[in-house]
Prior knowledge:
- Keywords: Membrane, Transmembrane, Transmembrane helix.
- The chain crosses the membrane at residues 39-62, 82-105, 126-151, 157-176, 196-229.
- This protein is mainly alpha-helical.
- It has a domain at 4-44 and 107-240.
- The chain has eleven helices and no strands.
- α6 (135-154) packs antiparallel against α7 (158-176).
Amino acid sequence: MEHPIFQKIEQAAKPDFGNILSKSFNLFKKVWIEGTVHILIALAISIPVMILAYVPLVPMMIKESQMSYGQEFNPFVEYSVPVIIGYFLLLFVLIFIAQVFNYGISAHLYKVIQKADTGKPMDIGGYFVFLKGNFSKLFVLSLAAMGVAVLATLLCYLPLFYVMVPLQLLIVIFAFNPELSVSEIIKASFKLGNKFWLIIFGLIIISGLIAQVGILLCFIGIFVTASFVHLPMYYVYKDAIGFEGNPLPSETATI
């Protein structure tokens, strides 16, 4: 039996571009602090991953610095094929693990946004609550999203603009429907994205530009404004599909 979300998407009314942006600005005033906290937590997870990714390169950089002028260091000659393959596999695993945590944190932010929008008190903590019981699903979702993006890139980049829209909807659909399978989340994202592609694409571009405004504040402000990109996607979901009392996986859980 098909999940009700697909019928709701079929019956969804066309989102109002201007109304969504207006509501996003108003809601941002309520959630910018929590949004900033979520962004900083995601950054705190990404930094160790980047450090671990560069650790294997340290011997390479030291050896290169010790070489005399005119000599060139070629890692594909200096290191064996298994070592190079192993490094890239490790790099991909680290990136995907960081992406899983970022997906889980973003999903929690959508629940925080929903509570702020509906006037419910926002909980403190619980930033990793969506990772409980959903880690493997989020990992597969991350792999699928990467696969779709890479395939679109290989097809002369133009398809990447098309898949950009459904890929932006993956986490908001997961956040409010964690019971869906990975294939159902992807199917729902593409179904909703296809139906209102131009409007959602415009919202992605405008909200992305607005999120970059923080750069003007000595770059630090980007951490404050970065979370704005989630608000239009939240209202696209709310206006098109709506809610039926979807609680957090564990309302009282905090990590």
